[in-house]
């Protein structure tokens, strides 16, 4: 594959670290320690891990890289697992979940023969900090004030949630969709370039975009956000949910279409889902992990006094528990993608699962 040759070897990372002057390193340590941790993990990564700087986000004092990390099979028809974190700058824990999984993988890769065999069958691509400018500034939106999750060229079909569903009044208010005439923001264009190059022609691909927000429980959301009707490949989501819950019944994710919560304009994953699945070949399932942050707040209401306390577990033991509790699900996604032919429903089974999905998620509602 030509693309892989374009990837910078990971030795570029120490150069990046050395390039920054001490003032910038100080700023980074203070405002974006996640970037330092990521660069440290990548600098020590084995050779088969490719790292590329997709884009840079320039702020007044510093400019920040958006990294793409690739490993596993280079075959153009290998299934893909994509992990994305840090779309919303306040939801730092999402980036940390992606990085915790990457750290675990890289620590095992030299000795774990099962893992090595698995990676021969599947391609894994990570964008651990998609919105480094927003995370540096400790705000949900990117530095232009645009909510990246409301910025794709797709409009809600029904009445969207007021403001929350995406607004075009002001970048000073949350959920600003930006200027659709100008195209998507640079961060989203970086993500789109990866998706357009990576996903077409694959028999199966799945993305997990890690967020944290409101809710008592960890939720897995899937499209659509722009309409209430089910997506075309709803049977594959139902099949994935079933094999997960059969094997790990004690895990407690709530799988739901985002439209059950609220409709939004400009949802990135609606847009990519439609774009990639348009061809009709293969299946692409974009999932969003919404870590239920209300539990952390209930156990420690003091968290509400800090802006980041809305979205992140601030107590160390709870933070560690969050990081370890999602490794299993991501490992599961990698295995499920690698062996998709063993569970992805065909023909009769597909129509039965589609019926089940509609009864489960769409019939009793509104
Ligand atoms: Zn979010």
UniProtKB/TrEMBL annotation:
- Which superkingdom? Bacteria
- SUPFAM superfamilies in UniProt: Zn-dependent exopeptidases (SSF53187)
Ranges for domain Peptidase M14 come to 66-291
Query: Which InterPro entries does the annotation name?
Result: Peptidase_M14
**Cofactor(s) for this protein?**
Zn(2+)
Single biological process term from Gene Ontology: proteolysis
Q: Does the keyword tRNA processing apply?
A: no
Q: Which GO terms describe its cellular component?
A: extracellular space
Q: Which UniProt keywords apply?
A: Hydrolase, Metalloprotease, Protease, Zinc
Gene Ontology terms for molecular function: metallocarboxypeptidase activity; zinc ion binding
The text of the family note is: Belongs to the peptidase M14 family.
This protein's name: Peptidase M14 domain-containing protein
């Amino acid at each position: 594959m030509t693309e892989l040759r374009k990837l910078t070897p990971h030795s570029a990372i120490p150069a990046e670290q050395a390039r920054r002057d001490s003032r910038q390193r100080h700023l980074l340590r203070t405002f974006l320690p996640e970037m330092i941790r990521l660069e440290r993990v990548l600098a020590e990564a084995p050779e088969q891990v490719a790292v590329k700087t997709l884009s840079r986000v320039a702020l007044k004092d510093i400019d920040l890289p958006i990294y793409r990390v690739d490993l596993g099979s280079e075959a153009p028809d290998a299934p893909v697992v994509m992990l994305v974190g840090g779309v919303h700058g306040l939801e730092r824990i999402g980036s940390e979940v992606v990085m915790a999984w990457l750290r675990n993988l890289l620590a095992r890769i030299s000795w774990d023969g099962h893992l090595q065999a698995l990676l021969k069958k599947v391609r894994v691509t990570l964008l651990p900090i998609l919105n480094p400018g927003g995370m540096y500034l400790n705000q949900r939106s990117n530095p232009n004030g645009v909510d990246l999750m409301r910025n794709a060229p797709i409009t809600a079909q029904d009445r969207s949630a007021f403001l929350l569903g995406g607004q075009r009044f002001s970048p000073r208010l949350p959920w600003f969709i930006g200027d659709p005439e100008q195209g998507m923001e640079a961060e989203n264009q970086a993500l789109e370039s990866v998706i357009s190059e990576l996903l077409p022609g694959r028999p199966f691909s799945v993305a997990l975009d890690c967020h944290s927000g409101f809710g008592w429980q960890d939720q897995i959301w899937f499209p659509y956000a722009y309409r209430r009707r089910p997506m075309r490949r709803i049977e594959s989501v139902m099949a994935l949910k079933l094999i997960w819950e059969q094997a790990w019944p004690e895990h407690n994710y709530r799988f739901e279409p985002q439209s059950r919560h609220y409709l939004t304009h400009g949802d990135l994953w609606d847009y990519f889902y439609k774009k990639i699945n348009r061809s009709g070949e293969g299946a692409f399932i974009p999932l969003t992990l919404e870590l239920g942050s209300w539990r952390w707040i209930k156990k420690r209401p003091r968290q509400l006094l800090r802006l980041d306390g809305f979205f992140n577990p601030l107590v160390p033991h709870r933070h560690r528990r969050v990081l370890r509790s999602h490794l299993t699900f991501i490992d599961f996604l990698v295995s499920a993608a690698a062996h998709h032919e063993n569970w992805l429903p065909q023909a009769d089974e597909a129509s039965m699962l589609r019926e089940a999905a509609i009864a489960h998620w769409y019939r009793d509602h509104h």
